[in-house]
Design brief:
CATH architecture of the largest domain: 2-Layer Sandwich
Number of strands: 19
Number of helices: 21
Helix content: 40-55%
CATH class of the largest domain: Alpha Beta
Shape: globular
CATH superfamily of the largest domain: UvrC, RNAse H endonuclease domain
Number of domains: 5
CATH topology of the largest domain: Nucleotidyltransferase, domain 5
Strand content: 15-25%
Structural class: alpha+beta
Length: 627
């Protein structure tokens, strides 16, 4: 169990991001802090002064985790990334989903520029940021352009070619006018590279030169000039602070680092997708006494990525490993593209690996017991489930559900759990196209057919074009979990056989109170012990599958869409529909009514009564078989 008081004592007095979870392990809030220790403790202090919304959030907190960073700025950027990735219930969400802005360096021009950019595109330009404030970015951009006399216009400037006349910025000393040939490419590039040095954080030489000028101004009693130079130095120092929460390249990377003590170790993995850190995992290892960092990292990569459905383009690790070449080829084959293993020694990537190491070290010192419990709840639960049904190599589990309002607006959901944890990025929604009415079997057949048809098509395309990134459907599960019993399992097996796929399928067997009591696998009911980790895992998957399907269904409904399933029955118009609802009060009672009871309703004749009875009879029989 998560001991709140004990975990609060372990909080570090460092900047970072904290993540609040509810009892179902859903992320309900993400926040940043200058001091995690002070900020997180405030939520649980008696007499706290918070809004009603935050008070509701606090009442639902079951556990929390945190990621330390090197500065508050990094914490702010990471907070933004995590909020966009997980959409926590109690965070205020921007509907337009705008990101932080960047400085765009047009390095492919003869006289390149520094420009404001709302997004980072896949072009030949170099991007700096993201900046947490558009005002701060504009201040930085204005400072660099003015002090290094860089052009801002869109003229096609070429050395030796005059274009129009010099603009006002040249006359006020803020542009070197390359459009007039007043500066050579060599001189301009020297200034431009100095500006990039400042953005890269390599501003030592620039600051040294400014300090020298400041001292000269002070000696000559030009105190205003000296003060201005001092402010410039401080400004350059401030904007030279790098933000590691967002990577400078537009790539998918995993950053791996570790910390060990005695016979135990924690390996931390940061997930960077499209250049943004979107989450992390830590894995607890034992039996590492007398093992080198290289051997532990090598063993971890082999085990972790052997069944990992997504392989990033690059792994960044803290030390070189002897088998790097072989492992790169192995991972490249799994990914369908070349994979690189890198050991950065300096710059942003090195600092990112160091940040992962710091978090691993903190986890090892403060959270080892919690990590053990988490391992039992997730990876341990999957292992226990695998042993229960006699399978091996289970990591990825997919579960499906159908949702509708009495057969109207049928939708399907697919949720994914990997190593016992929800992988929400891989969830998928299906709006049913071929099924009308409350036909769960046909609906499930369509969902599964579309899911695996997409997956096989993506794999076929990847074979034709090895450089193409793998699609989300191309990763197949190690096991499928159906909410229904024998009937649902047989539908899934028929679809898999149709596509020539061999994937284990389990159904949930319910008791009289509709609670799961076991699993249906290979035509046999496998009992589950209530309270076991595997039972809790299946329950979490079931609850998450229902939630996701119902939320999607609700999102499709509007006042114009709300209608009755009775509209789908031939011969039942508005008058008879109203009569039936007035007489029986609910759809469920109509479903279970006999022909005689239906005929007794005002405006209903024997023919229309039989149509209503036959419409629902097929579905009632289906539900009975499924149980």
């Amino acid at each position: 169990m998560f001991d709140l008081e004990e975990e609060l004592k372990k909080l570090p007095a460092k900047p970072g991001v904290y993540i609040m979870h509810d009892v179902k392990d859903n992320i309900i809030y993400v926040g940043k802090a200058v001091s995690l220790k002070n900020r997180v403790r405030q939520y649980f202090q008696p007499g706290r002064n918070v809004t009603a919304k935050i008070e509701r959030m606090i009442s639902q907190i079951s556990s929390f985790e945190y990621i330390i960073t090197d500065s508050e700025v990094e914490a702010l950027v990471l907070e933004c990334n995590l909020i966009k990735e997980h959409s926590p219930k109690y965070n205020t969400m921007l509907k337009d989903d705008k990101g932080y802005p960047y400085i765009r360096a047009t390095v492919n021009e003869p006289f390149p520029r520094l420009l404001f950019s709302h997004t980072r595109r896949k072009d030949k330009a170099k991007y700096y940021g993201p900046y947490t404030s558009a005002g701060a970015l504009k201040e930085t951009l204005d400072f660099l352009v003015k002090n290094f006399r860089l052009r801002t216009c869109s003229k096609n400037c070429m050395e030796g070619k005059k274009d129009g006349r010099a603009c006002l910025y040249y006359h006020i000393g803020q542009c070197s006018a390359p459009c007039q040939g007043y500066i050579t490419t060599e001189e301009y590039m020297k200034n431009y590279r100095q500006a990039l040095d400042v953005l890269d954080g390599n501003s030592t030489a620039v600051i040294s030169e400014l300090k020298k000028s400041m001292e000269e101004a002070s000696e000559e009693l030009r105190f205003e000039d000296a003060a201005a130079l001092r402010d410039k130095i401080e400004f350059i120092k401030r904007i030279s602070c790098k933000q590691k929460a967002t990577d400078s390249a537009y790539e998918d990377r995993d950053v791996i680092a570790m910390a060990s003590a005695d016979d135990e170790a924690v390996v931390q993995v940061f997930f960077i997708r499209s250049g943004k850190m979107i989450g992390r995992e830590h894995h607890y290892l034992t039996g590492v006494a007398n093992e080198t960092e290289e051997s532990v990292i090598t063993a971890f990569i082999k085990q972790y990525y052997s069944d990992c459905p997504f392989i990033p383009r690059e792994l960044m690790i803290p030390c070189g490993i002897a088998e790097a070449g072989v492992i790169e080829k192995w991972l490249g084959k799994k990914r369908g593209q070349k994979v690189y293993i890198k050991t950065p020694k300096k710059g942003d990537k090195s600092r990112l690996v160091e940040l992962a190491r710091k978090n691993a070290s903190l986890v090892l010192i403060q959270d080892s017991e919690r990590i053990k419990r988490e391992q039992e709840r997730t990876v341990g639960a999957v292992k226990e489930l695998s042993e229960l049904i006699g399978l091996t190599g289970i990591r990825r589990i997919e579960s499906y559900d159908i949702s509708n309002t009495s057969g109207f607006e049928n939708v399907g959901s697919m949720v994914v759990f990997e190593d016992g944890k929800a992988r929400k990025h891989d969830y998928r929604k299906f709006k049913l196209r071929t099924v009308t009415g409350p036909d769960d079997y046909s609906s499930m057949r369509e969902v599964l057919t579309r899911r695996f048809s997409h997956g096989l098509s993506e794999l076929e395309e990847a074979e034709k074009n090895p450089d193409m990134a793998m699609g989300k459907f191309s990763v197949f599960p190690d096991m499928i979990l159906m909410d229904g019993g024998k009937g649902q399992v047989n539908i899934a097996l028929e679809v898999l056989e149709q596509f020539g796929l061999d994937i284990p399928v389990c159904g949930m067997v319910k008791d009289d109170k509709h609670r799961t009591r076991g699993l249906y696998y290979n035509n046999t009911e496998v009992p589950m012990q209530r309270g076991s980790e595997s039972f809790r895992l299946v329950t979490r998957i079931q609850d998450e599958t229902h939630r996701f399907a119902i939320e999607y269904h609700k999102s499709l409904r509007s006042k114009e869409q709300v209608r009755s399933i009775l509209d789908d029955i031939d011969g039942i118009g508005p008058v008879r529909r109203k009569s039936l609802m007035r007489h029986f009060k609910s759809i469920d009672k109509i479903k279970n009514a006999t022909v005689d009871e239906l005929t007794a309703v005002e405006s209903m004749n024997i023919g229309s009564a039989r149509k209503v009875f036959e419409f629902f009879a097929g579905n009632n029989e289906q539900e009975k078989n499924d149980k």
